[in-house]
Design goal:
18 strands, FAD/NAD(P)-binding domain, alpha+beta, single chain, 6-stranded antiparallel sheet, elongated, 3-stranded antiparallel sheet, about 25% strand
C-alpha cells in the first residue's frame, strides 16, 4: 500500500492485487493488535538492529524514514504516541484502524485495489517484466512491485508465494526460517510458570558454553514456551544455532541485574536477619514474583518452611547463585505460524538498494519482508517495510516517466 500510494501520487496508474478478501490483514494483528508503527531511533541505530544486512537499508531509510511515516499517518488522521524504547504506537492502540487508514489513503491516491486476486505467475519477456497472471485474468504492466510478505502468520496470506515467484525468475532465495519467535525449553518449567512475566531482567544466551548474545528487558512464559521482547530479539540467532546442529543451548536469566553478587548476598543476609522467625516462602515474596517462589526453592533445595534464622551460608549461596543464573535449556523454536517475521529471503545483493529494482529482471521491484532483511522487535521491521515499499513505488513511477 505504501508502494502503490506513492507511485500513484506521482502519476502512475496503479493496481494492487490482493489474494485475500481484505487488504492489510497482517497489519491488523501486528503488535498484539496495537501496531508498533516505527521507532524514533536514528538511522545508524536502525541499521544496527538489522545485523549484517542492515546497510542495505541505508538508502531506503534516507529516502523515507520514521519522521515521514509519523507525518503521513498524522495526515491520515491517526494520533500517535511514543512509548518506552522509542516505540511508536497509535494512541488508540488499534491496529485494524491503522490498516483501514492506510487502505483509505491508498484509494485516495487513486489506486485500484483488487481483492481475491491470487497471482499465479509473473510474466516476463527477454528479462523484462510485462505483467502478472492471476486466478481470474492477466494484468499487463510496465512495472511490477512484489511485496507478498514472508512466511510468518500464513493465515494472513503470507504463505511464501513471493519466494516462489522470485526463484522462478532466477533470484537467489536465502533459506527462510522463523524469526522473532517463541522458544521451547526443556522440562515442564514453561508450563509450570505459565503467564509469569519477568521485567527488568538480564538474559544471556550460551551455545556450547560460549556466550553468544545478551539482552536486558522483559520476558514471559506463555503456553509452554518462552516469549516476550528479550526472547524475540535473541531468537534469530538461536534459530540459526539450532539449525546448525548446536544442541547445548541455554538462557541464563539474571533476576537481580542491579546487584552484583556481594550486594545481593548482603541483601539476602539482611532479609533473613530481619525476618528470623518468618518462613522462606514468605521472605522470598519481597525478592521474587509469587509464582516463581516454589520453583526457586525446589531448584535451590531449600525447604519453604525453613525460618530466616535457620538458613545456612551454603543455602544462602545457592539462592544467590540461582537468582543471578536462573538457567533454562533451549530445545527448539515455534513454527512460522507463531513467528512475527521471516529470516532469510531474496538475496539483497540482487536488488538495487537505491531503487529496490531487481538487478536480474528489468521493471521488477521487490520490497518488504520478502527481502533477506529482518530486525529486532520494536517497530524496526514495519519501518523497513514502509521505507522499502515507498522507495520501490517512488522509483517505479519515476522510471515509467
Amino acid at each position: 500500500m505504501f508502494a502503490a500510494g506513492e507511485a500513484s501520487k506521482l502519476g502512475a496508474d496503479v493496481t494492487i492485487l490482493e489474494k485475500k478478501p481484505l487488504p492489510g490483514i497482517k497489519l491488523r494483528i501486528t503488535g498484539k493488535g496495537r501496531c508498533n508503527l516505527t521507532n524514533i531511533a536514528p538511522i545508524p541505530e536502525f541499521i544496527d538492529r538489522f545485523g549484517k544486512n542492515g546497510k542495505f537499508l541505508r538508502q531506503a531509510f534516507h529516502s523515507f524514514f520514521s519522521p515521514d511515516v509519523r507525518a503521513l499517518f498524522k495526515e491520515m488522521g491517526v494520533d500517535i504516541q511514543t512509548e518506552r524504547g522509542g516505540r511508536v504506537f497509535p494512541k488508540d492502540n488499534d491496529a485494524p484502524a491503522i490498516a483501514e487508514a492506510l487502505v483509505n489513503w491508498t484509494k485516495k491516491q487513486g489506486v485500484d485495489i483488487m481483492v481475491n486476486a491470487s497471482v499465479d505467475e509473473l510474466l516476463v519477456e527477454e528479462n523484462k517484466i510485462i505483467g502478472v497472471k492471476t486466478n481470474n485474468k492477466d494484468y499487463y504492466a510496465d512495472r511490477v512491485i512484489l511485496t507478498t510478505g514472508g512466511a510468518s502468520y500464513p493465515v494472513t496470506g503470507s504463505t511464501g508465494d513471493g519466494y516462489t515467484f522470485a526463484r522462478s525468475l532466477g533470484h537467489t532465495v536465502i533459506p527462510i526460517r522463523p524469526a522473532l519467535v517463541p522458544l521451547d525449553v526443556a522440562g515442564d518449567v514453561a508450563k509450570r510458570l505459565d503467564k509469569l512475566h519477568l521485567k527488568n531482567i538480564n538474559a544471556r544466551v550460551f551455545a556450547d558454553g560460549k556466550k553468544t548474545g545478551e539482552r536486558f528487558g522483559e520476558l514471559f512464559f506463555r503456553k509452554g514456551t518462552l516469549a516476550g521482547p528479550i526472547i524475540l530479539s535473541v531468537s534469530r540467532n538461536i534459530v540459526d544455532q539450532i539449525n546448525a546442529g548446536i544442541k547445548n543451548l541455554s538462557l541464563s536469566i539474571d533476576l537481580k541485574p542491579a546487584l552484583d553478587h556481594n550486594k545481593l548476598d548482603a541483601r539476602l543476609l539482611r532479609e533473613f536477619q530481619a525476618n528470623d522467625k518468618v518462613s522462606m516462602s514468605v521472605i522470598l515474596e519481597s525478592l521474587l514474583p509469587k509464582m516463581l517462589i516454589s520453583y526457586c526453592l525446589e531448584e535451590t533445595n531449600i525447604s519453604p518452611d525453613k525460618l530466616g534464622n535457620q538458613v545456612t551460608s551454603d543455602e544462602r549461596k545457592r539462592l544467590r547463585v540461582w537468582l543471578k543464573d536462573f538457567r533454562l535449556h533451549i530445545t527448539g523454536y515455534r513454527p512460522f505460524k507463531e513467528a512475527i517475521i521471516t529470516n532469510g529471503g531474496v538475496n539483497t545483493k540482487e536488488i538495487n538498494p537505491k531503487t529496490m529494482e531487481s538487478k536480474l529482471i528489468s521493471g521488477l521491484y521487490i520490497a518488504g519482508e520478502l527481502l533477506d532483511i529482518n530486525g529486532d522487535t520494536g517497530g524496526y521491521n514495519l519501518q523497513a517495510s514502509f521505507s522499502t515499499g515507498w522507495l520501490a513505488g517512488h522509483s517505479a513511477a519515476l522510471s515509467c516517466f
